[in-house]
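Question (not urgent): is this output format expected?
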Amino acid sequence: MHIRVATLHDAALLAEFGAKTFHDTFEADNTEADMASYLATAFSPDVQARELQDESSTFLIAQVDGAKVGYARLRFGESRPCIDGRNPVEIARLYVDRPWIGRGAGPALMQTSLDLAAHKGCDVVWLDVWEKNYRALAFYAKWGFEVVGEQHFLLGTDLQNDLLMARPVSEMRPRSPGSGTQEDPS
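Got this back:
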């Protein structure tokens, strides 16, 4: 498993992964029109290129033998009022392509994200998860994230509820994020 920092050349890949993330999570509970509208505005290659140029964000890409199998987006310095931290980082997205779920890409991306947060001196890592995404909620709980609040948002015509989860960085031992390679823990 190799984890690398994304470049502008990865904008189309991130748009594809972003659309898959959204589709895999919300498909069963939303209309096709709502899905199409949101995907066009949130995950186009142009949007991803702008996000890649945002200096407060870092994108990580997981690769196995050259195949790109997942990604994570970290946003530094942003938090919700219920997140207690001076130097927070949000894991804004963490996605593993379906054929690779359970093969170590998720843990590798999470560990690299936490290592990068520790290296940058962050004191809290947080994320928000749709309350019906039970697999993601269980995964994050295994990594020490606890529910600290919630937020509601409108997706098309449906009101959605996200759980805000956080964990202090001090609960982990930082490793050098510069290695670029993580062993597959599975």
